[in-house]
Amino acid sequence: MSETKYTADEMMTIAASRMIRNGASCFVGIGLPSAAANLARLTHAPDTVLIYESGCIGTKPTVLPLSIGDGELSETADAVVSIPEIFAYWLQGGRIDLGFLGAAQIDRFANINTTVIGDYYKPSVRLPGAGGAPEIAASSKEVLITLRQNKRAFIEKLDFVTSGGYFTGGDSREKLKLPGKGPTAVITDLGVMTPDPVTKELTLTSIHPGITVERVIESTGWALKVAPQLSTSEAPTETELRVLRDLNERTARAHAGQA
Amino acid sequence: MFHRAIVAGSVQKNTRVRIGPLETRDDTARAGRVLEIIISRGVMAGENGGNTEYKEYEERRASPATLRPCHNHSLAHILPLKQAIQEMVRDGDIVALEGFTHLIPFAAGHEIIRQGRRNLTLIRMTPDLIYDQLIGCGCASKLVFSWGGNPGVGSLHRLRDAVEQSWPAPLALEENAHAGMAAAYAAGAAHLPFGILRGYVGTDLPKYNHVKFIECPFTGEKLAAIPAIRPDVTVIHAQKADRKGNVLIWGVVGVQKEAVLAAKRVVVTVEEIVDDLNAPPNSVVLPSWVIGAVSEVKGGAFPSYAQGYYPRNNAFYKQWDPIARERETFLAWMQKHVLGTKDFDEFKRSLEPAVSHV
What we know:
The complex is a heterodimer. Chain A is of the alpha/beta class.
């Protein structure tokens, strides 16, 4: 069989989608997490309950939403609840199996910055801010993070911790008594990192086909640890690629239109 | 027409008294006005001078006993939007324009810009394009928010320019997470001093906002406490109102109910005013007597959406990015389409033929 060509972003989305268990209740951030979660729902995890912070529970969009509250999400949802309810009863109430987040910047302990780069009061870059992420990171039973890997994003020290991963590593998250256990994987366009069981430092455990370990290390702003038993991600299947591309094409058509 | 009223008994200093609408014996009250006066000086106008706004905001927020909303069991006035904004939104107000992606009150925001309001403290979970426009036009001195981007597109360039370069004016930030804002609005609606949530632990946000941590008196769990949000004015857009001013919302209902009940004054724009809401039980109906003014503005949430009426105009959200990126293109656009138009209908017509509106 001839090798199917695919992009690094497609590999990232597909690798992330594979992490979603069928039947899990999944609180989804917009962008890459939303694409991966819907791909999972359309392939191996049809019973996944997708939840968006706009209050849409069990939503089954036919195209990816541009915003977190597109009409497509509420029209295809099992239930639509208010914002105070989604955060209080559903997220803080411990009903979310999996929180799925994107990030602007991440550090070795999977803490996330989406607030500012530089000084808070005189930032060089003002990012959008927290949104739902801090409480998704704290209260979901488990967290996945997906973002593109480069030295601007994977940095030694964050200027601002918006959402907590493992804080300063080791047992520092446990000491804060957050309800959820924290990030279990960071999925990028180059590979997959998982926290060390003891130190909680992100460790490269899988690289995508055609990517070298050196390239991942060069794309990381700290001395990235590499697992001794490094695996290679399975290349996208034809089904995964077809479903993802159909979804992206439908989405592009839906969002183009006339303004 | 101004109704007159006798204020009986003593009125505390620095309280506001809304006079009217009075008992309706006929339909004239519907065209009447809400007149609000302030006993004593200084609170609204900042006459004490200096940087009083922030302190006032804190004081006003911290003392709910003097901040009873003006719900006097009278019906909402159905007013043209221009008049509703004139009467309900003042310079220096704490203003919340809510609507989580859905039902964002763009028409009302434009009217605030047209009327040149200044020194506003703007509250909104997701500032969206309407706050980009208000901030870029110099209406705001402070923003209370939890996520400030153009969803799925990128930055709000005018918000960033205000924060990074103080253009057109410095913008103070009070920054939260969504869960915190939701709890703060719910506390405001309940007239509680603060909201409680399981949140913020371990993040840097409490170093820069007003969140404090408390211990649960029963379990010892560490919980976040956030001061209640109490806007002077909340503005929302909804699908329908009836002729008495009862308002019906459905779909993504966001935090609008809480924002309305937390506010002292309320303006609602609606897609249509109908004889009968035909509201199913348990749908979100805001009774007329908690609302100050209702204005019919068809398409008033464009380019966001009104479920059952028109979809979100995602193409417009994408087109906003290059418009807002530079000060000159932004100002030219605002001049042509908002400041240079008399109302929302004219605004929408001004976008033709480049942009088809709802």
